[in-house]
Amino acid sequence: MSKAFVFPDFYIAQPELILLGLACAVMLFDLYVRDARRSLTYALAQFALLGSALSVLNVLTGTMGDLAYTFNGLYVADVMGHILKLFACVTLSVVLIYSRTYLADRGLLKGEFLSLLLFALLGMFILISANSFLTIYLGLELLSLSLYAMVALNRDSALSTEAAMKYFVLGALASGLLLYGMSMIYGATGSLMLTEISRALSQGAADRTVVVFGLVFLVSGLAFKLGVVPFHMWIPDVYHGAPTAVTLVIGSAPKLAAFAMAMRLLVNGLLELAVDWQQMLIILAVLSMAIGNIAAIAQTNLKRMFAYSTISHMGFMLLGLLTGVVQGNWLNAADAYSAAMFYAIVYVFMSLGAFGTLLYLSRAGFECEHLDDLRGLNRKSPWTAFIAMLLMFSMAGVPPTAGFYAKFLVLSSTVAAGQLWLAVLAVIFSLIGAFYYLRIVKLMYFDEPLSGRDVAVSISGNSDMRLMYSVNGLALLALGLLPQPLMALCFIAIKSL
Amino acid sequence: MSSYPLLSLSIWTPIVAGLLVLATGDDRQALLARRLALLGALLGFVVTLPLYTGFDRASAAMQFVEQALWIPHFNVYYHLGVDGIAMPFILLNSFITVIVVLAGWTVIENRVALYFAAFLFLSGIMNGVFAAQDSLLFYVFFEATLIPMFIIVGVWGGPNRVYAALKFFLYTLMGSLFMLVALLYLYDHSGGSFAMADWKALPLGLEAQQWLFFAFLAAFAVKVPMWPVHTWLPDAHVEAPTGGSVVLAAIMLKLGAYGFLRFSLPVLPDASRNLAWLMIALSLVAVVYIGFVALVQLDMKKLIAYSSISHMGFVTLGFFIFNAYGVEGALIQMISHGFISAAMFLCVGVMYDRMHSRMIADYGGVVHRMPKFAAFMMLFSMANCGLPATSGFVGEFMVIMGAMQVSFWIAFLAASTLILGAAYTLWMYKRVIFGPIANDHVAALTDVNAREIVILSVLALAVLVLGVYPLPLSEIMHASVNELLRHVALSKF
């Protein structure tokens, strides 16, 4: 029995195709550009991001937001995917603005960085639109391999090389776990397509033991990609070891892709097993919030501190994912999943700002990555300190900043799901977390600069970076004052599933 | 009734003024920053005056209501309104802001714009707390107060300011996060509404009410502060600059007490009645035990801080004896304490600016060098111990009367404050002001200048007027307090 070949509908997959073309163009173009004119490649990369964002918009308006499949159902286009892709483009564009000077000062602003960044984005796009285990794996590996290479970009640094090795080995292990879980589920349900798997599960056709067995591995692999405890070991080392610009890449847009991957696998594919995976996520979420927040207090290196903060934030986001289905009832689902999506998007903006601060304050021959490097920032540059303070309060979840609403939405769906004790735990851990964010405000505002390590004698960032940094911080404040648009957007996105 | 959005004006005028002050930049423009701040504070006070003149005293309903959809996704409204309970605090807050700006005029020389901007932000945000009729809006304002205060204590505070600022922030945040969970529970339980009015009518079982009561207690008890979660206050007060102490004592502590009246009593009446014994017990511990603690303090600011806790114990006591004397007395006590504690901290500030010491032992015989100042401080000290004809007397007397209706022993213990208060305040006054001139530093003191006289006179006037003729204040509260008490008496299940 063979199916007739159906010519795929390229129209709805055009963002990926255009991005692929542009990424190749950047790679080739860079071969013909001398170092002095590297900014041309940079401009082309920004153009590629713009182009792919526009084509996402084009598909969004063209399909009117309807669900559409192509490539024999391997690829799905829906509103959630479009929105996440748009945010990923915006995020990476900001990443480029932030890291340009930093990379140029260190001789890393090369075609490699830019084209790897675009290929990573392509991986995210594929992951976000995946409707089959195969496409998920394809997107994930494209994303991961690009990131491994980027971590090792600074070849002369032992720290970076070590981080890249660690990332690669552990990442490969996680991919293995994921594949193993996929194969179990494939064995039980007879399909790689998420929609088919979902149908098989709801008809009760699959052997439950095998499926749940596979699910454990699947969730483990997913937990690794999200970086939640106990699969978090790589995060601090990689965040610390990678050049700050690359840390910024790893800590931002891929979180959106990881969120999409969780949604595709767990909600699109395995919603029937919600009772099982929600239990697993509870453990992951509580452990992440606990270990992330407590370990962050002990860090003196800012990059490591933000790494642990990432872990705790991802744990918090999981709270949204695990409160969707209550006793087989899906009434809460759209609220809960859109809360998690809101959290992911807001977290990405906060993460951009946090690592952006470090990039902003670093300059040629000086890495801003120690707590003491922020001492007395308010004296040196009140505006920078103000924006950084907004970022820290947003991370801590203090109103009126966007971070508060992220926590608020997630807690709200946790309470609505009747998991009051989980909400109380989350609240206690975020209180612990507030301490180390406050410590940064304290360093910037209350302390005098150290004479030895004179930070930010002159802040090196160029004007577009300064502007972007201000926009970043103020956007979090604006979203805190008027959170409705983003909330509604996330809700529409989740409704479209 | 006025058609202007008066409550929005009272919130946003200071905040916009704060932004302008912040925009003046660094300390080279300090004078401009000061003038702008004073203008903003005065303007902020002026816009609140029509709230008093236009207030309908016969009505217990919310007045000057403004309502606009804010976050439709969660059915959250930008909903403002005041009743007789909230309105006086907005006036008090805006008034104290003017005082604080004047008090910091010459004392603050470092990061001037940031200092004044922080106070203006704080003023607007606290007006928001008192005016909010939507619980989430209330929470956002309630939490947002932490940020400026954190900066104020941490940047311009004393030697141990970092510890004090962090302790203040984390203590308060801990309390309010539990409140957030309670708010979300009520939101879920009420079928998706954050409106305080809806929650008032929401039926709730006793067990749920008690859990919620403790969650709200966590937030408000820390803020008031009640014994045993009061320990952040002495630290914060001692380290804060004078202006910070004034705002902290005069307004911020009232946010917690106000929360009891807005949430615990009307939304959880059964739990409030059931747990009243606990609240009364904690309040009496605060009044008596903290009174003794105040007695042994060596640091003037610490002494006044403990005296604040003791006085706030009176306030919570008045709320939880559930009669009109008690609640009205407690409200008047809150307003009066706003003036008196502000004045006491300013008095200490006046001396501190000259001597750079707050230790009682470093003073003695100040009256010989600062006779005018000694007279002012005499008045405020007397008011602090509740002397008749000062505002301190009215509230305490009413609460004791209310307590007497409930139980003689509660009234007896509460009344001990009249002795304890007099003991710690007057003993401090005696040691600092009277006696021979203690040392060369005291000998070099100069009396209060015109600016300080203006500040202290205004406060003295307020203390005396409220003490002699409290009717203009109490008549505003009558209707709202009676409505509240009627509501608390009804069971919710």
Structure description:
The complex is a heterodimer of chains A (497) and B (493). With 497 residues, chain A is mainly α. Chain A has one domain. Chain A is 73% helix and 1% strand. Chain A contains 20 helices and 2 strands. The longest helix of chain A has 32 residues, at 158-189. Chain A starts with 13 loop residues before the first helix and ends with a helix. The model of chain A has no long low-confidence stretch (mean pLDDT 88). Chain B is mainly alpha-helical and 493 residues long. Chain B contains 22 helices and 2 strands. A two-stranded antiparallel ribbon of chain B has the order 1-2. In chain B, a hairpin with a 4-residue loop joins β1 and β2. Chain B starts with 5 loop residues before the first helix and ends with a helix.
**Number of contiguous helices of chain B:** 22
Most extensive interface: pair and counts? A-B, 34 and 36 residues
The N- to C-terminal Cα distance of chain A equals: 31 Å
Question: Secondary-structure element order of chain A, as H and E?
Answer: HHEEHHHHHHHHHHHHHHHHHH
Number of helices of chain A: 20
Strand ordering within the main sheet of chain A: 1-2
